[in-house]
Amino acid sequence: MAATIKDIKAETGLGLATISKYLNGGNVRSENRQKIEEAIKKLDYHPNETARSLVTKRTRTIGFVVNNIASNFSGVLLQHASAYLHERGYGMMICDSNLDEKQEAENIRFCVEKQVDGILLVTASREPGFLAPADKAGIPAVLLDREIKSDAFDCVTIDNSNAAERATDYLIGYGHRRIAVIHSEEYTGNERYTGYLASMKKAGINVPYKYICSAHIHSAELGYNSMMKLLKLKERPTAVLTTNYEVSLGVIMALNEQGIRCPEDISLIGFDELILPMVMKPKLTLVAQPMEEIASEGARILLKRIEEGNSFPPQRVSLYAALKQGESVRDIIVNGKNNCRLL
Amino acid sequence: MAATIKDIKAETGLGLATISKYLNGGNVRSENRQKIEEAIKKLDYHPNETARSLVTKRTRTIGFVVNNIASNFSGVLLQHASAYLHERGYGMMICDSNLDEKQEAENIRFCVEKQVDGILLVTASREPGFLAPADKAGIPAVLLDREIKSDAFDCVTIDNSNAAERATDYLIGYGHRRIAVIHSEEYTGNERYTGYLASMKKAGINVPYKYICSAHIHSAELGYNSMMKLLKLKERPTAVLTTNYEVSLGVIMALNEQGIRCPEDISLIGFDELILPMVMKPKLTLVAQPMEEIASEGARILLKRIEEGNSFPPQRVSLYAALKQGESVRDIIVNGKNNCRLL
DNA sequence: CTGTTAGCGCTTTCAA
DNA sequence: TTGAAAGCGCTAACAG
Questions:
Q1: Residue A10 beta carbon within 7 A of nucleic strand C
Q2: Backbone angles phi, psi at B180, to 5 degrees
């Protein structure tokens, strides 16, 4: 059996309260402090966190509910969030929603049952209803990467619309006008699509509906199928904006399979600086999300919310995502003139 | 405040013990059962898992300690393990060791402190010492994917040596004799290296030391640097065996950068059927580890160990990993004869 | 600064 | 079957 605080009491002859106080960093006469430390070492004592939680009502555990843990994106986010939280003595309970809203609702309930102190959430759903159990239990949640239809929650994202707009501006700056977009109807997909439209409108370019490919959820299949369709068009696009990592992978699969060269035959611009865009040839030009900042800023806000409750209004942090130049976009000659670098 | 069992008592007039018994699936008169169920619904009662844990000494939480959570490999393993465990009411506490043995030891202590019921471990270290705190606390651990130097622990791996041997046999069967290997000195890297050597020996092929590239840890850098070195050799290898996912990525980077074609100029064979090998052109020929089986088999053994203690000996499960043919290996003509498909 | 005491919410004897 | 009572290991008044 593991040693308890009572064993320390028996060993030192001190009262429980004194020992507890020492354990929690209170002031204890140095003579007693020494006694306690000796006893702890001798008995190899470790506080029972469960007992502690029962009385403090704090588990020092954060739930990490994520739409799809198998994605490289989630893994990197998880890495940074867990580093931040561990450093501060918090554990992380992981719940994979597997791209399923039912599962996501179930995961929130699970976290409530497990009495986590707070939830970090990369959501699959856009409707806030599923968060009710956490709300009722007084457990705060911070949204990462994706918003929901409610401004009651803290939220850390990038400015998706603006980032996509800059990416599209970039293509237009290189002379492209036939630009297709592949997006999902999820939050990020839609936001990025909006940015694309804004850029095209600004440039006075009409967007044929055939250049707009979408599906309910981001996936490699979406990228693959969409690209295959685009390649069959009589007037092929000269450039494609993909609004997500997995979608880019699918697009590349299709190009490889069809023997289409990038950027010679078609230019590409995507999102997320994960391992693949670094490895592929040509290097993908992309919008790089600040992964570590998203994770640590989200965790920081969550801990603050846990400490300070509703004493401050919901935070909505929008981080800047830089466009990183690769080799996947080429110049288009317009009117015999190389239109390069209009930007 | 959340409702407690006492509120149910007040609502129903029954004793605490009866209610507790109902909660734990015991026999209760159907009349009382109904009363309790009504009260639970009315008060929106949820058992306090912390209080429960304090008396049962079970947290229904499993620690998942992983060498590197950012890797796609870990993400997929995590996905399957978490699905298996959640289904059975267990939560998963994630601890990233970030390829650091100190951090790994720290993670084990953290899990012990948090009183997890068991640990699923993809280890960075090979020495079993760091597991002592778990052992002392009576917390079982199951090793996934990688063994350590101790046969006291349950362990689920693939037969790494044999898989690498088959992969090398395959290359030799296609006529290759100048075959290089890139491996790490971690468990899996070494095992796979051993298999490579066995195959080469079996075929009577002498291995020049320049064809053996290694480093302490698997990484894309290892793959990249090794491949760059191999390309500079006077007698280049005609094929390369990479013993890990990240290493393969690095190799591909180097080939792309140098404009070396695969499989025309060099053949490649790797490990792990994750997203990249599916997307790249040519499709990588590889050893596919049964990810879901590794995870669920490991979790199954762990839960059994938690239930039944040391009533059965340490399990050492070695799963079969199939070689999946891609397009990254070409035939080599030997003595004017196409040596294809000797296997 | 120290110790006594009363719980936190639940399970589990044990006697009825 | 049921319920009273003891206690899991700890913290937090409170009195000394």
A1: no
A2: -95, 160
